[in-house]
Amino acid sequence: MNSESDLYDGVSRSSDSASLSVRTEGGKTRRYVGRDGSCRVTFRHSPGGWGLYVTDIFTTLVESRWRVMFLIFSLSYIVSWLLFGLFYWTIALANGDLADADTRPCVENVRSFTAAFLFSLETQATIGYGFRGMTENCAEAIVVVTVQDILSCLIDTVVIGIVVAKMASARKRAQTVGFSSCAVVNLRDGVMCLSWRLGDFRGNHILEGVAQAQLIRHVPRPSGAAALSHLDLEIECDQIILATPTTLVHRLVPGSPLYRLGPEDLLKDDFEVVVTFTYTGDSTGVLHQTRTSYTPPEIRWGQRFQDMLKVGRSHYHTDYAAFHQTVAVPVPQVSAAEYDRTTPRPLTVNGSVITVTSATSTYQEAWL
User: Fold this and answer.
1) pLDDT digits (tens, 9 = 90+) for 324-352
2) Secondary structure element (H or E) that encloses residue 214, with its range
3) Is 8 strand, coil or helix?
4) Helix (H, G, I), strand (E, B), or coil: what is residue 164?
5) pTM above 0.85, yes or no
6) How far apart are alpha carbons 251 and 46 in whole angstroms?
7) So what's the pLDDT on residue 51?
8) What contacts 104, CB < 8 A, 6 or more positions away?
9) What is the pLDDT of residue 103?
């Protein structure tokens, strides 16, 4: 059995960001989920190829960059103006409007391709300067104007819909809900716990939210192919009202995949803890998700998050300057399994206090 001094040695204080590393055979760093929540996955030889993006063109445009979207929308208008301008010019040419100014024109004052393009632009943009206008002399010109008006309404509807959907994108709201830069291991009620902090940086709060966590391991295969294993981590109070920053807690108890890992084993291991928070915004009612991941170097043993909530006369005050800060606390430098085996705990039975070593006993408070 380790002495108490051995259990609590090596406690350090740090508030710096931890380094990022997931070891691979090539010595390079690999993450499955980035700190910003993006999945580090690329696709090759996907079925359907570009046809899938063209089929779901609305989603493709919503997910495109703003500069790409503006380029596509500008081209859609310019190409449509040029196309219908070509139609009007062809109709005017066939009717003899370009050669003889005395003929009964299909479109007034359209005697060149430039004039036909301007008439197309004025028609689709509903500018109507009053200089050029449609006549009843050519039925084909009337049909083309009708088709252009319908197409103009369709393009405007798509443009407005995509711009609104892009501005209300769930990714933008997800950027205002964040996780702490590190996770910590400490004692809560006498139990080893892995915890991380979650906060909403906006004033309009979230209606409801559910937190989840998974431990992802990179499993080597004899063939050299990559394989991933997913294990769920149970979170206490995963239904959250995120009005103030919340510390999410996973107890290192029997059944937890991290139960037998000590601080040294933790740094030698190769895994990722992927945490997500799925919630509904109260302003739009849209479902959002924020996620990040923690690798072993980003898990600080013997630390807890610095207090950031104070009670005022009429409000709770939250100091987000301390959101990522941690302070050192006395925590045994052994695994949760070893700590449960070697540490006696008080248990009250019929008013009497007895000592047990079982991991299922009532835990004494270490800190809150």
Assistant:
1) 899 999 999 999 999 988 876 654 444 44
2) strand 206-220
3) coil
4) helix
5) no
6) 40
7) 67
8) 135, 137
9) 76
